[in-house]
Structure formats: structure tokens, C-alpha cells
Amino acid sequence: MSTALSHTAKTTFPILFAISIAHLLNDAVQSVIPSIYPMLKSEFALTFTQIGIITFIFQMTSSVLQPFVGRYADRRPSPYALTVGMCISLIGLFMLAHSGSFSLIIASVAVVGIGSSIFHPEASRVAQLAAGPRKGLAQSIFQVGGNGGSAIGPLLAALIVLPHGMGAVMWFAFALILGAMVVTWVGRWYQRLIVAKMVSQVAKARQMFSLTPRQVNRAMSVLVLLTFSKQFFLASMTSYFTFFMIDKFGVSIRDAQLCLFAFLAASAIGIIAGGYVGDKIGRKYVIWCSILGAAPFALALPYAGFYATIILAVLVGLIISSAFSAILVFATELKPAHIGTIAGLFFGLSFGLGGIGAAFFGWLAEMTSIRFVFQVSTLLPLLGIVAAFLPNMKPVKQ
Based on C-alpha coordinates, what's the Rg of the chain? Predict the structure, then answer.
């Protein structure tokens, strides 16, 4: 009993760093998919609509299963689901490396997406269980791994896949194998936790905040709308920023990928601050400043020169990146008995909205232009103003 209690009474940093590394490796592989879009478009003569369909399938398969995986984890924790998820992604990666048609690419990204949908909610739950009192910081450590992987993926794709062709995608299999080894070790720690202690913590958490069911439902609706604004904007950046830079400034595919790397790297750096500050001053203010605070820089981005565009993209990445961990922890505080379900819901919602956004902006690019896509999408952070309707999560005096 005492061993299990010690795991949950304080922040378990070795587990947090391990799950963050696994998140980095997992998302680095996933980010290879959008980063090789220019290559796929050229090699298979794809349209922007087909690029959007690829992202839509990937994001939907990444999202649909996540709430169900999270709900199952709330009832029956599955320590080795993390390993299973990475192994499924490995199969999808092998398929992608040997794809010879648009339909096979679709099938490949769908399998990778299924692996992701198994990995993310359970990994987020592990981060929450290892957090102790530092829930925001824990989710930020977990998230920065994913953002770091998303930033590294395009850079590695530019260095490895672009010079050597689609077959070189298989080099990323080593990342998934290493990740599977890490999460297997994490799974052993997870398995030793005493579920009864988790239940008692949930009961205690229920008493921390005094909100009515109506306030909880309204707050959840606001969080969903904020997630929509953030993910639709990020869909335009991650899927089409390379095309925007190529179209507007005539840069090479390699240089466009490096510009995307700058945006994603800034996002990885900024996310840690959001969790830390959220624990100190409250997550509502972090959400407000993160999304709405990015709006002025996002609005200027489509009209700036080359170097100013890169600087603005970096600033937007730094500011907006802190929002998701704050949103996720805020949601789990609203419904502390359903950590896995909430994690799966918001991860799934993020991936799903990202897929819908990518498909929508792909269609819009076909109908208008890639520059018009950015003139529209950069308006989305203005929706951050609805964070004003979130309740102040003030603890009830015991």
C-alpha cells in the first residue's frame, strides 16, 4: 500500500519524462505524413483535395477511437495498450513506405491513425496519474514531447525522406521500436498502481470545486469551441504552411519544410510555460492569453514579407501552443471521475477537428487559392474571446 501511495502523492518525474519521450517518438513518426505531402503530391499527381482527404482519414482514425479507449481505461486500466498502439503504428509505417497508389496511402495513414488513437488517451492518463499536485506541468511535459516530435518529424523528413525517396520512411521504424520499449517499462509502473487509491483521489477531487451541472456543461461547451478554433487554425499551418511558403515566396520544398519546423519547434518550446503558469495563476487565464493572444500575430501573417512571416509563425507557435494542456487539465478538473474519457475525447476532438479542417482548407484552396486559405484561417484565434465564459475554478474551503 505504501509503495502505491508514494507514486501518487508526489510528482513522479521519471515516468513523466519517459512518457514524454515516448510521445516525442510517436508524434515524430506521425508528423512525417504531412511533412512529405509535397513529395506525395508530385510523385502521385495528387490534388489539394486529395491531400486534404489523406489528412482527414488520418485525423479521423486518430480521433474516433480515442474516447472509447479512454472510457475503457477509466474502467479497466490497460498498461500495455501503449505498446500495442505503437506496434500498430509500426505496421502502418511499413505500409506507407511501400505504398504505390493513392488508395494504399489512405490505408497506410488509417492504420497509423488507429495506433495513435490507442496511444494518446492512455498516455495522457499515465501523465495525469504521475502528476501529483502539478497537473498542468505534467500535461505540459507530456505535450512538449508530442510537440517536439511534431517539430522534429518535418526536419528529419527533409534530411532523410526527401533525398532518398518514400522507401526511406522505414528508417522511422527505429523510433517506434524504441518508443515501444519505453512504454513497456512505463506499463510496468502503471500496472503496480493501486486502483483503489485512484478512486479515493477522484472522490477527493469531486469536493474541490463547487460547480453546478449546468456550469460544468457550459464550460465543457466553451472548451470544445476553443479547441475548434485552435485545431482548425493549426490544421492550416501544419498541412498547408509549406505550400503557402512555396506559392508566395517561391522557396524550395526543403526550405518550406524548415519553415514549418520553425513553427512546430516554437510550439514545443511554448507549451511548457503554459502548464507551469497554469498551475500558478489558473488555467482560465492561460487559455485566454494563449488563443486570443495569438490573434494579432496570426492576422498579420498572410500579409508579411518572407522573414517577417517566419518570425510571426514562430510567435504564434510560442503563444498558442500552451492552450491544449490547459484546456485538457481544465476539462479533467470539471469531470475528475472520467480522466481517461476526457483525455480521449479532447485528443480525439483535436485530431478529428484537425482532419476536418485540413479537408476543408484543401477544398477551399482548390476553389480559391492557398493564400486565401491563410487569410481566412488566421481569423480563427479571435474566437479565443469566448474563454471569458469559463468559470473561475476556485477551490471550496474545507
Answer: 20
